């Protein structure tokens, strides 16, 4: 049989990329490098995978994270060897914490090179071991039928883990030796072997059955719910399925329990503003008069750790049954007060409970106390927001929610923006998708993640971000040069770490200013313009409305800066909390 001349690295990488493509990977984020040439060539040659190219590996990885978040579908990240692999670690940590499927593909030197002082060589063996679901090193390419089939089978196995069995990032490491280019021939192989490498088909995924994890535990929870009239439902951050909102409202109506909905959970929107949904809990749960009178006997906590410090403090002091329910049995409980952890789909849990509840709760007084507190706080909040002088950080959230169109995305940066959104965003009829990087809550990669979200969804995306997080990911702005991305960045610039005003260290003024606030006095106008991106500095609320509405009509990235005073903003928040305390 006639032999075909090939480069073994290219054939090896092509077999891998074909397996990814056959199993539904549609996107890849690639950064240039020499050692990853075989992987880059294989991805570039696959027409079923859309490629994004990034100079900066960290930005590439966070962009991939944003792409994956939109539909919770896997995205590949490709890097060269050496410190490039370390640059993508922050995004891997975030993906691990939020169970986002990322397929990490790192090129590597042949075994042992990092011990010889070779260029761009570090120990990459399981480098992300604390924050991935699985790892596999393919070893040096060897073109035999058995080896290529093993490569594809191992690739399938890790993709299956990443997307179905235990969702999150997985890591493939590829040692390659020169030459890398396809016309630099290294081997002679048969057409049969070439066909195995190029085969576009894969093994069919098996489907996991999602059922009740523990029927005895379900019976116990139902008994408790039938027994206790005073209960609370907490909806933490999560990418909930479409039917969950209706099911949780039905459960709340039957139990007469209030639903405390985190601002990042989607359920403040798209739910027809149901009466049982409570949004202003962070403020009134800081009031000991209210919390002392309203202690539940049972708590159902769905999803992840809540944003609100008020809720977290409230939970930590309770001595009642607290059930934590989520799909993979993850423990989201900083208060260390959970009674039982249940591994179960949220919607299936609700349906199962609703169908088997026998007692109809008639205690409207308990539910009314939370609804009334929510309404009273809402009135105080509205007066507080709209009486404050420009620029008030708390009002920014409300102005955005008034102006943003239906079916848009909102990405919330960490530190103050996500907390302000949780505190000041009221329930609304608008259908909005809320995104965040609250897995590890870092301030790095926020711009790049937002761009990935906007690019994948092709929907208007609004990013609320502080100046420190904006500074951390300036490289992300470069992505706009190659992609027309419908993203509006609302840059809230208080010139430093404004969130640290809420820490006790604030009273040590000299140390606080130098080591915590870290004022920078950066001219973001010049920086943004340097990237060729439109920039506008806001003068008043009327100006904000005009600029925002104009920006919506554009399909390109724009930056809208609002300069605020962190000290004044802190005082205003304290004033708001004090007014709520006095109301009860």
Shape: globular
The CATH superfamily title of the largest domain: Thiamin diphosphate (ThDP)-binding fold, Pyr/PP domains
Give the number of DSSP strands: 20
The CATH architecture of the largest domain would be 3-Layer(aba) Sandwich
Sum this structure up briefly:
By secondary structure, the protein is of the alpha/beta class.
Characterization of the model:
The protein has 22 helices and 20 strands. The chain is α/β, with parallel strands linked by helices and 584 residues long. The protein has three domains: 4-198, Thiamin diphosphate (ThDP)-binding fold, Pyr/PP domains (Rossmann fold, 3-Layer(aba) Sandwich); 215-373, TPP-binding domain (Rossmann fold, 3-Layer(aba) Sandwich), CATH 3.40.50.1220; 388-582, Rossmann fold (3-Layer(aba) Sandwich), CATH 3.40.50. A six-stranded parallel sheet has the order 3-2-4-5-7-6, sandwiched between helices. A six-stranded parallel sheet has the order 11-10-9-12-13-14, sandwiched between helices. Helix 12 (309-316) links the parallel strand 12 and strand 13. The longest helix is centred in the middle third of the chain and has 24 residues, at 364-387. The termini are far apart. The model is unreliable at 203-213 (pLDDT under 50).
Layout: helices, strands, pairs:
Blueprint: E1 4-6, H1 8-22, E2 27-30, H2 37-45, E3 50-53, H3 57-71, E4 75-79, H4 83-87, H5 89-98, E5 102-108, E6 134-137, H6 145-165, E7 170-175, E8 187-189, H7 191-198, H8 215-227, E9 231-235, H9 244-255, E10 259-261, E11 277-278, H10 281-284, H11 288-293, E12 298-302, H12 309-316, E13 321-326, E14 340-343, H13 346-356, H14 364-387, H15 393-403, E15 409-412, H16 416-424, E16 433-436, H17 446-457, E17 461-466, H18 467-472, E18 487-493, H19 509-517, H20 524-530, E19 534-537, H21 541-552, E20 558-563, H22 566-582
Parallel strand pairs: 2-3, 2-4, 4-5, 5-7, 6-7, 9-10, 9-12, 10-11, 12-13, 13-14, 15-16, 15-17, 17-18, 18-20, 19-20
Antiparallel strand pairs: 1-8
Helix pairs in contact: 1-2, 1-6, 1-7, 3-5, 3-17, 9-13, 14-22, 15-16
